[in-house]
Amino acid sequence: MRSSQHSSARPGGEVDFQLTGSPALSRSTVDRRELVRGDPGLLRALWENGRMLAVDPLGRALVTREEAAPHRRRLVDRPVTDAEPPEEAVLLGADGETGYWAVPVSEGEADAWAERVPESEREWLDLRFTGALLDDTGAGLLTTAVGLLSWHRRAAFCANCGAPSVASQAGWTRHCTGCGREEYPRTDPAVICLVHDGAGNVVLARQPTWPADRYSILAGFVETGESLEHCVVREVAEEVGVQVGEVRYLGSQPWPFPRSLMMGFTALAEPSAPLHPADGEIEQAHWVPRDRVRTALRAGGGVPGLILPGASSIARGMLEAWASAG
């Protein structure tokens, strides 16, 4: 797999390209402090100097508009007030001596938690919508919080013996009360691939459950015993019936819905190769010219008949990079 920082011409006139920046949910500034998670003294210090954010049952966090840039959002946190971290608190990381923590809150608790922010200035937004609107620190904190808290909701019982498990290591492990097994947050690897023909066209497809006119590039989960590159070839063939080559890595992004890591690739297909959408999985698939993608991007991400992925998705960054090349 190759990596370069700029677009460049390749043999035959094909244009090489790379992501122009970090995907929205790959940005982070805090130190995860893995080495302190089992040290009660160091954890106490990070708690006493801590800031806390809350995530509601819908995976939303409290945000407010940036005064200097109203289109941007700022993650709302607050100083910790309890003497000890609640059992469900998870350590997200630290900036110097300041620890950042997250807790899940119920609907009623969310209302109380937001009381310090004027009602007209607060919003509870999910990561898909707000990830690209946050600064690097906020994006990294919320991505980690959503992923960790989602894991805890789904891992209350031991996968080995079925006994209840309890959180430990500042929320980064769960300990089985029956067999003593330790479990760690799970990440499911997935590939997402921009398939193009080297002649200015890209494959865009839509799933049956998506809103009307919503299209994206192709994606799928990596199977046991499969390499990332082989997964790209298999998924493209299964979803649209096209054989691809020149599989090349672009970048990655956590996608905690609930626990994926999206690894972005580009691959080359024969020009005008016929598309055969997988029954029940892909409702429509089309070769879309670069100019139409550029028009949709200039319009903010969509035009009649073509709505592109949201700005928080690595798919959007991949399409932007491809559209700007050539």
From TrEMBL:
Coiled coil: none annotated. Keywords: Hydrolase, Magnesium, Metal-binding, NAD. Its cofactor is Mg(2+); Zn(2+). The keyword Disulfide bond does not apply. It comes from the Bacteria. Its EC number is 3.6.1.22. The keyword Metal-binding applies. Pfam families: NUDIX, NUDIX-like, Zn_ribbon_NUD. Belongs to the Nudix hydrolase family. NudC subfamily. This is NAD(+) diphosphatase. The lineage of its organism: Bacteria, Bacillati, Actinomycetota, Actinomycetes, Pseudonocardiales.
